[in-house]
Amino acid sequence: MRIDKLLANIGYGSRKEVKQLLKAGAVTVNGEAVKDAKTHVDPEKDRIMLYDEEVYYREFIYLMMNKPPGVISATEDVKDETVVDLLEADHAVFQPFPVGRLDKDTEGLLLLTNDGVLAHQLLSPKKHVPKTYFAVIEGEVTEEDTAAFQQGVTLDDGYLTKPGELNILKSGPRSDIELTITEGKFHQVKRMFEAVGKRVVYLQRISMGPLQLDEELNLGEYRELTEEEVALLKSGGKE
């Protein structure tokens, strides 16, 4: 890979800015100053230094965000703030995108990556990747609802959902539940409860496949996935 492309890709500036760094003699490869932007390097084998800092190249980035309400699950939007707007520059430079979407008013676990292959695996209907939500429901959720969700419910457009696993945490005029589904139709959780005559008043995604929302992340915060978490995602949750 060309040295200017490598440095630009990992956030050391635009191609033009990187060329200025090279001209200034700020970059060495295996101890030798490199000033030609066209010089090819092997990031796996060559030791690249910028001033006194070693440069580590990586192709992909994997981020877990606790998405706040009011923010759009998109890379850009003309009206609203997006999840990408919440990223620091050294992460945004990798151009990650949200894997799937959470509604504007929904909180919780959102994965952002620039790894298109993994994103496709996680979103493919054939993979049946489970997603678990915590929700507060206006109305008393009963075992009848649990049974209905196990069969799949018919949404307002006539679509019959795949079975969902409904766990009632607290039942009353306002009920707390957890729901695990393996598909992601538009507003699906809200529409499933509407199908049984109830309304979602708060919704948070707490897991996606083997990935659990980090409870230490405040709303709007994010962190990189650990190597173990990335490996679990790629293996479909199998150790």
Helix content: 10-25%
Shape summary: elongated
Q: Give me the Rg, rounded.
A: 22 Å
Distance between the termini: 34 Å
Using DSSP, what is the number of strands?
13
Structural class: alpha+beta
Biggest pleated sheet: 9 strands, mixed
Q: Low-confidence runs (pLDDT<50, min 5 residues)?
A: none
Please report the number of helical segments. Answer: 7
Instruction: Give the strand content.
Output: 25-35%
Summed over residues and divided by their number, the pLDDT gives a mean of: 93
In terms of quaternary structure, what is this?
A: single chain
Instruction: Spell the H/E element sequence.
Output: HHEEEEEHEEHEHEEHEEEH
Give an account of the 3D structure:
The protein has 239 residues and is of the alpha+beta class. It has seven helices and 13 strands. It has helices at residues 3-9, 15-23, 89-92, 116-123, 143-151, 188-195, 227-234; strands spanning 27-29, 32-33, 48-50, 53-54, 62-67, 97-98, 107-113, 131-138, 165-170, 174-181, 199-208, 211-212, 222-224. Strands 5, 6, 7, 8, 9, 10, 11, 12 and 13 form a nine-stranded mixed sheet that branches. A four-stranded antiparallel sheet has the order 2-1-3-4, with no helix packed on it. A hairpin with a 3-residue loop joins strand 9 (165-170) and strand 10. Helix 1 (3-9) crosses helix 2. The longest helix has 9 residues, at 15-23. It is elongated and about 70 Å long. The two termini are 34 Å apart.
